[in-house]
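Q: What would this chain look like folded?
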Amino acid sequence: MLQTVARFLMLALSVLSAGTAAEVIAIRGAMVVDGTGAPPRMATVVIDGGRISIVNPGENAPPGARLVDGRGKTLLPGLFDLHTHLLASGGTLAADWGKNLKAYLACGVTTVADMSTYPEQFEPMRRLIAGGLPAPRVLMAGRFSTPGGHGAEGGRGDFHTQEVTTPREARAAVQRFATYKPDLIKVFTDGWRYGTDNDMTSMDEPTLKALVEESHKAGLKVVTHTVTVDKAKLAARAGVDIIIHGLGDGRVDAEWLESMKKAGTGYVQTLAVYEPRGTAGSTAPRMKRWMNLLGNGKSAFDGGVALGAGTDAGMTGTPHGRSSLHELELMVASGLTPMQAIVAATSNSARLLGVDKERGTIEPGKLADLLLVDGNPAERIADVYKTSRVWLGGREVDVAAMKAAVES
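A: My prediction, written as structure tokens:
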């Protein structure tokens, strides 16, 4: 594991850059989709000091501002992916952190929640990003499971995934792990990986509830690997903040909807990782699960459950960056409108993570994490692939360089 950390540090240091001071920028003539669900409107958006300072109709811009022509384009908040694995490549090649991080920037994904980083890497990675490592905003999760449960296979529980079996152990483990300063906590509450493998051990409700309570005391949100409807009900009763996997073993019911709404628990479908592919994906059981996944997302939305966006990127067939965009297409395929999918990937995701005061919408005072695309994804969601320009905290990302690095 220490060798893994060393390789990461060498890679990161090779791509550090000093960056440039934020400037005043006026984006004029673009259709603005602000992330709130409000209808798109033509407006001038001014960036000053790394934040959005003005959102006004018309084309007036402050004197001296650098002008960006947005005609024929749409400006959106930077996108979120609430379920990624930066230590995995999404294919058969060894993971390349630098490429994985750049892949998100190339697609306008400016905030990701990472479920794979070793706790010893938290602080070095934060220092590197603060020093100029090209990266989106990364929230790193501490991992908890049960002995023999998913996430603790292969003896990883000693240093990667904390194993707990009782409420007392859960509280003590959270207190101990908090010294690594995670951004959130991930719990493997369900022994099934994707609803297809043999069941491994699962976390019981009292233990999960204690873990959630202790995490909340430390100011940490709790997300869960939960892939079955019954375990999702348990997770909601325990008060988790977000279920970050789609449920495919059956259809959700009124009990699930009410428990989710009562707890304020969000739901992330991760359709990109489940999408049937090839001959193996066309089997009747696989297609039944797929239809359940599509239907459950729409039922959750219609029932008033907050939807976020996430992919499980890094898993086989789920590449970093582009999978976040494909997830929006799949959400639309499940019955959401393009605008509803965009809201899920922006303001909803920000709110579920508890960062909505800083980002997730295009409003004065918010950080200038922005995505400019050709076309209008509020009408044609596939236009979200047509990345034109990206800003992170008011600094423009070199999209061409990010794409070239990913493809090299």
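Residues 152 and 161 are 6 Å apart (CA to CA).
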